[in-house]
Structure formats: structure tokens, C-alpha cells
Amino acid sequence: IIWFYCPTKYCNHCYHQHLEALATCFFFLTMVRFEATALAALALYLPASSAADRLRGSSPSSPQEAVVVTASVEENNPFIDIQRAGIDRSLASIHVESELSFVSDEQLGALGEYISRYSVDGNTDIPETCPLDYEGDVDPYHPDSYTTLGSGRSLMGEMDMDQEMDHSHMHYVQSECNAMLDMATCVDWSLWFDTNNITMSSEVKIPCGECVTLDAGPGQDMEGLTLEFEQGLNIVGKLVIPSGADIQLITKYVFVQGVLEMPPPPAGTPISSEDSGPKVKITLYGTEEVIFNPDEATENSHKGGEAVSAKAFVVAGGRVDVRALDPGCPGWVKLQSVTYGAALPNIALNKPATQSSTYNNAGDGASSAVDGNYNSFTHTNCWKGINEWWKVDLADLYTISSITVGNRLDCCGGRFHDATFYFYDENDEEVYVMPTSGGIGNKKSFSVGASVDARYVKVTIGDQDCLQIGEFEVYGWKASEGIPLENMDRLHVGEEAANCWKSPGSRIMLTSDTYEWDDSHIEVVADVPSEPGTIAVYPLTKKKSAVDETFGYPDFAVEVALLDRSLIIEGAKDEGEFATLGGHFIVLHTPHVHQHLEGALLQNMGQQGKLGRYPLHFHMSECVHGSTLSKNVIWKSNQRCVVVHGSHNVTVSENVAFDTKGHCFMLEDGGEWDNVFYKNLGAKVG
Fold it and tell me: Which of 60, 160, 205, 686 is the most exposed, fewest CB within 10 Å of its CB?
């Protein structure tokens, strides 16, 4: 039995400051689905509540009594749908001190009818609309459309209690001029627009009622092109991006007032890697505020403009139906087992090394970091106005897989932190920079990836303190020869994952199996044959716990996820004050529209410190029954991952979030209804 108790003080605050207390304090359990293997009953204790009295149609009684919600679960059924729970009507009502007079009998009656209809007498039908889809002038169940008793303060600001609020302008609706889009003949982009002009200075708009296909598939006119929209892309009609398209769109914003559609690829199609295979990349750029103005041809044209920030991907009155990967591809899996290849050699051992300075003859010189002895160490000057550095010459061009740094062991290990690694080619020209965060303890390994070919490797730390290194080890192979097959590691991930993730160069993330939150690693898929159900990767930075090593406890095995996708939505990277201003994707005030986004990589998304600017965000869209966010990757987010705010009936499943900032998967108000978060994975969430 699980007991949920809502204190009287909190509930009083809920009722008088935020009417969605009906969700948080009373109906919270009735609308949230819990994943469980066995659960006999659920109970919710409530304090005094006139809403409870009125919903149950009973007379007030003792304030010590409570309402109990119960539910039974069939054996081996992993889900409980509390929506179908019944209220024990044998209990007396609960005495209250005050009435919520601004909640109408009609609204309370609708709530009671919903619970009765879908929770008793064995009725298991799932309603197709949200229980609180109230069609009135004032909808008290959403925070942008109610006021409170007493002070008259609302989330919208100060106003008189008797003043009627009209929030119909807050909803964007689908347009009648698009009613026949499904039967419309789509025209190729290359015929609709001038493809000789790949930089378009004015807004590019697909008019309402029109359908355009982005003909960038294999052998088509726009395959491999890059188009830049200096004033943005506005899809008022319909844009179809065919499966297998290969194109980059650079734009200040994307507005979807009509339909954006991307059908799934044929079954068995592997997901493209960063360096190979067709990809659709949408890059959002700019730092200036963007204003969304509904198109004059739509029913929303009278609703005025709305600020949506820079780098905005906005769905307002429109529909996204994007299915960018084979539905049979998993979002992530457990690592079943690993077949390890032979260890790579330390190619830095006894190679020439230099450093920026030497502190008072302390340490054993730059070469001590490559002598194979962890008891010797390098030591540069301290706080001399520069970031001290150390550098090794590998004497040939090597493909570098990983770096292991051993710390000074006798003292002062905290000085080595927030290291940045620099890689240089044979001409000593920089080819790659790899920043890291945190300390290294006694020793730490860093995965580099299989695409970095370098002769020189340099390291600095995050401040101007002394740079001290016990041992610096570099692992890789000669670039001219390629990696020997015997050095490959093979991950056993199952046939579905292996078939989808096998593109050479694909980036695979393995989660931490230690107490260290950031002990996850990125590995790279190698271009070599592998057995069914396995993928060959360049040697792992460190060994990982697999299912076959967990003594019958598979939950202790690490998770494995592919970070690449064939559809990429990214925020352009800026510097200085805009360094954390990524892109953002928002479904804005659009109720009753089925949204579907599956198989996208969202990279450098989210805007740090900006409210409501998240990588994936349903905002105040109320009932969006059937909407799905599935098998997407949120990577290097500046603020959160998936946020559902004032929206109901969204399924968020099998998404992967890696290297992100802030609370990752979030219901914003606690008044959101019947949303399902299932099998999502977050790693290195800071």
C-alpha cells in the first residue's frame, strides 16, 4: 500500500493560489500512470475540502476522515492506470471552513462524472479527451485563466476579482484553409522556389493550403545542398521532407502553422552517422528576439504577435508528424556482454615532451610524464599569468582513441582539474580541441573518438595554477595503417539495436557504472564486420558492467544508446554572453492536435536562464491526446530536456538525454494530466 498525504496548509495554499490543487491534492493519483510490477492499493489522504464534498455529493462530516482511492493490478501487468481507480463512496465527506465559490457546479460535476465514468463498474475505456477540457469563458484549471479569492492576485498579475478574463487568444487552432492538405498534390521545392539562390534574404513561406516536398532525396535536385533563410522558414501550408533526404537548412526560426511531415524510412534502414549517410540538419541561428505573428490567412491572424526568443522552432496551430527512424529501432538498450579485444599500446611512452615552464627545479621534467613511472611527476610554475601547458610529440600521425592522465600522488592532486586537450597534425596545426570538466582523482581516462588524427597532444588546466602530471598515456594506432581487428571491442546489444546502429562512425554512449555521475563515455562504431546482435567499436575507454556480469541483476548493467540521428535540430553555437543561448522547440498553445516527433537529435538546445526555452516543450496546449515524443536524443542541452507545461495526454518514451543542464524530464506545474513518461534515459545531467 502506498499512502500519499497532502498537508492542510499546502492544500489551502493550492486552493487559494493555484486552483490546480484539484490535480495536485486530490486527482493527482487519478491522472498519473505508475510503472510497477505489483501494487495492491493506493490511498490518498485529504484535508478539509469543499471540492471533495461537492464532488461526492455528500454532507459534511468529521474532518479526520479521508477519501481513499483504490486500484487492483493483474499479475505480471507492469502498469497501473490510476485513472481507472474508484472512490470509496462509503466514507463520509470532509468538513470544510470555506467554499470555492468561483468553481462552478458545472465544472465540479464534470470532474465527478469523469471519475465515476472511467473508474467504476469495470469500465476500462480510455477517454479520448482530457477530463478538464472545459469549454467556457473562464477555464479555472489552467494557470493563465483564473483568479483567486481574497487578494485578487493571479499568475497574470493584479486584477479585480469581478473582472471577466477572456483567454481565447491564448489558443492557436488549425486553419480551415489547410482542411484539404491530405489530398493536395505536393510540388517539389526546386520548382516552387529558385534553387539558384541558396541564400534567401526574406522569409520563406509555404502558403496555407499548399504542399511542398523538399526534393533532397537520392538523385534529386536538392540533394546535398545547404539553404540559408535569413528571415526564417514559415510553414503555413505543408512541407514534406522525404525519407533519405540529405540537406542542411540554416534559418533564424521555423514556424509550423500548417503541417511538417517526415515519413519513416524503410524497415531495416540504419541510422546515419555524423560522417556518413544522408541527414537532414536544421540549424537555428541568431541572438535577437523573434516575434511569432500568426499568418493572415489563418483563423489565428487576429491574435497578435508573441515573443518566442531567438533560434525558435515554434509549432502554433500546426502539426508536426516526424518519424525519422525505423520504428523497430530501440531508443536505448542494456549492455548484454562485451568481447574485449587486445589492449592498444600507449603510444606516448618515452616520446619527446615539453612544457611551458619548470617550477624551481621541482618535479622531474616534462619527460617524467611519459616514463611509465607514476611516482615521478612534472611541475610547472604557478600563477604566473598564463595557463601552463604540457605537450608530447608522438613522432608520427596517430588516430587517437583515448587518453589516461595519472595525477601527482604525494600531494596536491586537486590542482589538475577542468583540463583541455589540444590535438595538432604533423605541421603542428590545431585539428581538434577537447574540453573536460572536474578533477581526475588519482587517475582518469578520457574517450577521444576515432576521427582525431594527430601527432602532437597538449594539455592545459582550468586556471593558472601549477600543472602537475604523474603520467600521461595516449592510446591509438598509426593513421596510415588503421586499427588491427584484434584490438576491436564488440558490444552485444541485440539484433534490433545492432542493425540500426551499425553505420561506421556512429557515436555510442555508455552510461556510468560507478558512483561518479560523469563516468559515462562515448565510443565510436568501427567499419568492420561483426556478428549478429553485436557492434564493433574502437577500444572502450574503460571496461563496463554488462548483464552477464551482474549475477542475475540486469539493472546493474550499463545502458547503451546511439547519439546520432538522421534528423538533426541544433542551435548554432555563439560566444561570450550568448554561449548558452541554444535553440528551442515549443508546441505553443495548440490544443487538440496530435503532435509526433520521433527520431531527432536535438543538439545545443535550451537557453540557460530563459523561462520556457527548453529543447522540447509542450506549453499550455491543454489536451493533445495521442501526442508523442519518442526516441529522440537531447545532447549538450543548456537548459533541461523535455518539459510538459499545462498540457495533457503526452507520451514521452525512450528518449535519451546526455550531457545536459538542469532538471531533465519535467512536469512544470504538477497540474498536468495523464502524461506518460516511459523508459527515458538521462546520463551526465548536470
Answer: 160
What is d(CA 191, CA 527) in angstroms, rounded to the nearest whole number? 39
Minimal CA–CA distance to 623: which of 670, 652, 589, 600?
589
The residue among 644, 620, 632 whose CA lies nearest residue 679 is: 632
Residue burial 167-187, b: 16+ Cβ < 10 Å; e: rest: beebbbbbbebbeebeeeebe
> What is the rounded distance in angstroms from the CA atom of residue 25 to the CA atom of residue 350?
67
Contacts 24+ apart (CB under 8 A), 154-163: 155/18, 161/102
Q: Give the pLDDT band (50/70/90) at residue 450.
A: low
For 335-384, how does the pLDDT look when each residue is reduced to its tens digit (9 = 90+)? 999 999 999 999 999 999 999 999 887 667 899 999 999 999 999 999 88
Identify the CA nearest to 647 among candidates 157, 144, 256: 144
Sign of CA dihedral 494, 495, 499, 500: negative
pLDDT in tens, 548-599: 888 878 889 999 999 999 999 999 999 999 999 999 999 999 999 999 999 9
Determine the distance from the C-alpha atom of residue 632 to the mean position of all C-alpha atoms in its chain, rounded to a whole number: 7
Dist CA 360 CA 382 (whole Å) = 10
Give the model's confidence band at 87: pLDDT under 50 very low, under 70 low, under 90 confident, else very high: very low
- For 574, counting Cβ atoms within 10 Å of its Cβ (0-12 exposed, 13-18 middle, 19+ buried), the class is middle
CA distances 449 to 28, 333, 400, 540, Å, are 46, 21, 7, 10
Distance CA 380, CA 571 (A): 39
Strand, helix or coil at 232?
Answer: coil
Cell of 610: 530563459
Report CA torsion sign: 147, 151, 156, 159: positive
Q: What is the average per-residue pLDDT within 99-118?
A: 46
- HSE (CB half, 13 Å, CA atoms) of 604? 18
**Dihedral sign computed on CA atoms, order 54, 60, 66, 67:** negative
Residue 581 DSSP class = B
Class of residue 366 by CB neighbours under 10 A (exposed 0-12, middle 13-18, buried 19+): buried
Q: Are strands 259-262 and 238-240 parallel, antiparallel or unpaired?
A: parallel
Bridge partners of residue 332, in order along the sequence:
561
pLDDT for 23 beyond 60: no
Residue at 124: amino acid letter: T
